[in-house]
Amino acid sequence: MNLDLLTGLYVFMLAAFIGFEVIRRVSPLLHTPLMSLTNALDAIAVVGAIILVGEGKSTLATILGTIAIVAATSNIVGGFIITDRMLKMFKTSGPRKP
Amino acid sequence: MIVGEHIIEITYLIATALFILSLKWLSSPATARRGVWAGELGMLLAIVGTLMHHGLTYRWVAIGLVLGTIIGVPLGKVAMTAVPQRTALSHAFGALCVTLVGTTEFYLRAPDVPGFMMGVLSLEVILGALTFTGSLMAAGKLQEVLPQRPITYKGQNFVNLGILAIAIGIAATLVMHPEKMYLFPFMIIIPLFFGVMMIIPIGGADMPTVISLLNSYAGLSAAAMGFVLGSKLLIIAGALDGASGFILSVNMSKAMNRSFSNVLFGAFGQEQKSAAGAQEARPVRSASPEEAAGILAAASKVVIVPGYGMAVAQAQHKVRELYDALTKKGVDVKFGIHPVAGRMPGHMNVLLAEADIPYDKLLEMDDINGDFPQTDVALIIGANDVTNPAAREDKGSPIYGMPILDVDKAHTVMVIKRSMAAGFAGIENPLYYMDKTLMLFGDARNFVGSIVRELTGSHG
After folding, report:
1. ipTM
2. CB A41 to CB B227 under 8 A?
3. Does the CB of A10 have a partner CB in chain B at under 8 Å?
4. CA distances (Å), origin B36, targets A83, B31, B41
5. Is B443 a catalytic residue?
6. Chain B residues within 8 A of A10 when measuring between CB atoms
7. Bridge partner residues of B412 (DSSP)
8. Of B253, B103, B115, B94, which is closest to residue B172 (Cα–Cα)?
9. Is residue B92 domain-resident?
10. DSSP-assigned letters across all residues of B408-436
């Protein structure tokens, strides 16, 4: 995986702009689920840890990497479960909105 | 294996698109659950794609995934009142993952680490380490295993910034001399210490801002990890998380009337003990549940303003019964939610939604404030400073300038409160001494329960 600095910075900048525009539109009603969802998505860092452990280049990599996988996976699983639980609770008062 | 590599990259590309859609669908409660499914699908694709990498051994990966799932499930099933500390804990886990991967990458590559790589690696572990201990501290304060009272001392900001400066100095040295590997552990230990020091001066009332800020740091450290690993997917996920945390911190600091630089330097939670001066016993009007029920039943428009005190008293289900009883009588009931009500952004909405109160009745501060002059009764349950008119009128008040809910403009104001003791910030609330204000003294849950009994009992 080769990624030069400039391309990386472009990707980061564009993603930050998209993030601002998309998240600005999230209703304040849902700010708590927003935080738990972004937290789960952020745990995509598990991908890096999986490669580290899978390649097993050193004992240190295996030990620290496995702990990293545990931490990130618990965020993924827990984050998605609680976000869905919260969102399930939001109901309108009926078909007629005020 | 060129074809395999391409397939992996394509799963990452699709995952990225799904992540952005996931956040986009979160914009409205009607589509929000679809957002979670999109996120889950994206995550699954990315992980499966990663596992297809050529030449991986799976034993420890599988152990890690299974253990993580075993820990994750109970963390997804905590009570809604405990969501803030769960969120803080998950920021800590995310930061831990990033810090560990960064550390491993350093030892695999050192001493041949190019300057730029060392720079982002330093950013990754510094942000990761301080977020890890900072979030653990925040979770501890929220769970009340640590004292919630802010601990301050003279020159605190100076000391904290000094500690951070040392860590940055070490990072700069490593960028120029990556062969000085003995310095690396210090670049982790010092930010770990800084994370603790950063949260010590922060009181419970500032937790919404702190959690948002830690969220942003966690995202940025993950983005830095993306640069280190050359993973666009990770850069994007980190940038999205960082942006989200940043927006929420700005929202929260606005709602608390704190400048953003004030928040960035962790100097919040210090103006706690300002106005303790004149405390002569002024007369207040109080009322019984029967009287309160009578006034509520005669109203045509009621706005309920809940604060964290309502959640502490576990009164949200009684409030729901009150909402039902009043709605049945034809009273228009809405809820006015201040952005910092609760312990994290949006927390109050979740607590009310859990009690089955429809979300279209939950209005933000800016949407409800125009309604107060036409409101017959504003009923305040467990909120204090966010209703204090001194924030609007009294330039000497420590909370002057903080946006508040204009409950004092309603025809009648009712406040359920245990006693006349001052609120979290220790500031006198002139609202309680107004002629139109009725104080309802008692436990929020019992008092609301008594009102509901009066309302339902008298009409069958």
Report:
1. 0.92
2. no
3. no
4. 7, 9, 9
5. no
6. none
7. B377
8. B115
9. yes
10. GGSSEEEEEESSS---TT----GGGGSTT
Contacts of B121 in chain A (CB under 8 A): none
Q: Please state the pTM of the whole predicted model.
A: 0.89
Which positions 240-299 of B are in contact with A (Cβ < 8 Å)? 240-245, 247-248, 251
Contacts A–B by Cβ distance under 8 A: 367
CA-based nearest distance B159→chain A, Å: 31
In a domain, B13, yes or no: no
Domain range for A55: 29-89
Amino acid at B446: N
Q: What would the two tokens of residue B119 be?
A: 């720079």
Domain of residue B427 covers: 289-457
Q: CA–CA separation, B235 vs B100, rounded Å?
A: 17
**One domain, residues B309 and B342:** yes
CATH number at residue B353: 3.40.50.1220
pLDDT in tens, chain B (460 residues): 566 788 888 999 999 999 999 999 999 899 999 999 999 999 999 999 999 888 888 999 999 999 999 999 999 999 998 999 999 999 999 999 999 999 999 999 878 888 888 999 999 999 999 999 999 999 998 888 888 777 777 777 788 888 989 999 999 999 998 888 899 999 999 999 999 988 888 877 778 888 999 999 999 999 999 999 989 999 999 999 999 999 998 888 888 877 766 655 554 444 444 444 444 567 788 888 889 999 999 999 999 999 888 888 888 899 999 999 999 999 999 999 998 888 888 999 999 999 999 999 999 998 999 999 999 999 999 888 888 888 888 887 777 888 999 999 999 999 998 877 655 556 778 888 888 898 998 888 999 999 999 888 754 4
Residue A65 resides in a domain: yes
User: Token digits for A86?
Assistant: 């919260």
Q: Is A96 on the interface with B (CB under 8 A)?
A: no
